[in-house]
Design goal:
The chain has about 100 residues and is α+β, with helices and mostly antiparallel strands. The protein has 3 helices and 5 strands; from the N terminus they run βαββββαα.
């Protein structure tokens, strides 16, 4: 399970945007289970997304499907990164930098 901070200004309407962007990025409708939104797509057996307790982050839990081709893995990874970029407002490079600064503290 991984928690990703959301850029200031993008937290308003986060729970709605989470669902809309799942549909836009992955092309599937999520199922709802106790505040979590869940999909299964490509190399992901399971992708659970929910808003963090402070409302300023998202929490994502994944389970991988290892029995897929490299092309499916690359496609899934590309869509997952795009989803994170849109939802958090941070690029992959910015997310890595922020994660490193948190672990160094």
């Amino acid at each position: 399970m991984q928690e990703y901070p959301v850029k200031r200004g993008l937290t308003k309407g986060l729970s709605t945007r989470m669902v809309v962007e799942i549909k836009n990025c992955f092309g599937v409708d999520p199922t709802v289970s106790g505040g979590n939104y869940r999909i299964s797509y490509g190399a992901l057996k399971r992708l659970d997304v929910k808003v963090g307790s402070d409302g300023k982050s998202i929490i994502i839990d994944t389970e991988s499907n290892l029995n897929v081709s490299d092309e499916v893995i690359l496609d899934t990874n590309k869509k997952f990164r795009k989803y994170l970029d849109i939802i958090t407002g941070f690029s992959t490079k910015e997310r890595v930098k922020r994660a490193k600064s948190v672990t160094e503290d």
